[in-house]
Model the fold of this input.
Amino acid sequence: MADSVLVTNISELVTFEPLTRSPYQALVTEEDLGIIKDAWFLVKNGKIEAFGEKDGWKSFAYKNIPRVNAEGSLVLPGLVDSHTHVLYGGDRSEEFSSRLEGKTYEEIASAGGGIYSSVKKTMEASEEDLLSSARKRVKNFLSHGVTSLEIKSGYSFSWQEDLRQLRLLNRIKEESLQTICVTALPLHVLPKEQSAKNYIKELVDYFLPIVSKEGLADFVDMFIEEGYYKTSDCEPFLKKAKELGLGIKIHADEFTRGGGSKLAADWGAVSADHLQHASYEDKKALAEAQVVATLLPGTSLYAKIPYTQARGFLEAGCQLAVASDHNPGSCQLSNLPMLASLAALHCGLTAPAALAAVTFMGARALSLETKKGALAKSYDADFLILPFHHYKVWIASFGEFKPKQVWVKGKRVI
Ligand SMILES: [Zn+2]
Done:
């Protein structure tokens, strides 16, 4: 039988089955992990067919299904990273060194560094260079157990360049072992030779119709921040994206309270990301609109900015995901297990919540919660066999150990 396997001798299988029955639940406790001890599960045609404990698997063993002995290991759903920027040219190592010498962000930007240098290097890079560097990064995510990830365009001064990046991302999507979601982020940096308003009009009239017609993106995104895009400018773009059936994600309230959270709630975004400066009303609005609040602790670590605190979001009733925000300037990490541990320590997530944040909640933040981020019946068989016995050991180990095996849709890929 194609893509079918029986996995036995599992010390602890985390299914998240309770959460699959309650997909908008905010608070995650150990009960929600749906842990089965001394477990087994059966994969049929790339999907979870059955699971149970002890030797219940024996009734399936005669059907010529290959068997994998997990040798007493922990099995988790494949991890889901719902926010990355892995397609870019060049690097920002000079800028990193300048920061170590005490240069400020403004000084770096005025010397031609910062995000604008990534835009320039990406626009100058050949398709082959962009593809080969992005492929390496995507593969590195896989080595850490990330079986689904989102990638954004956005290192562009023009919508034509953004389309080029989206087309490259779709090539990666087609060939990748992982499941890739593509997000169009033309509203990342301000255009060079026109006003934001004019640029957005062109995006509405030309860019979004092409994106929709060619099926180039699953989501659109925008950087709502002082000195970048304002909420009022973005509304025509959101209206058109919504009409075309594209999902919405928003970079919100990172450096100031720019209104991104409220915009996300008003427009039914699937997630709002960063959120250091979201107010209690913002958190309430996100919860009511079932927008996933996505914490990006790697950016806080790397760029030395405050960590978004989970508590207020949970009190307001928000679901919380954790993602890497992998990008050339403010976070080079792709070790999502390490970022889950970092979020637990510095954002205030419990161990079950941190695990959910990089699996089921990550899937929620990509509208994939009916097939990814859990190992319940009929979910995709994306799973990790880890060198631990218990999920608490996984979260305490801070991403130090890679998975022993990684499987995607019932196929072993590592
Ligand atoms: Zn980002």
The chain has two domains: 5-77+374-412, 80-364.
